[in-house]
Amino acid sequence: MNEIYIVGEQGPEHNSISSVHTTYDGALEAWNKLRLKLIEDAKSGMEYCKKDGRGTEMYEMMLKNLNCTDPKKIDNYPFETPYIEKRKVMI
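^ that's the sequence the OP posted. Answer follows.
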């Protein structure tokens, strides 16, 4: 049995896989890139809300949550949360 690491993001109504890796280090690098993309998306959403005169509390919470750099501790529920999942596979 070999191990693979799946990198993705999940929310209350979705689960998307973005990549699959043979090493944890490769998965961690991809996870961090995904986390940073989610941070950029949240910043864009906050700027849009500011221009539109709406509240930004939701995006502020998302940015705080996504600043966690530990895949085992990060929690951005109910919004997109990046993850690494280890699976055993037979080759």
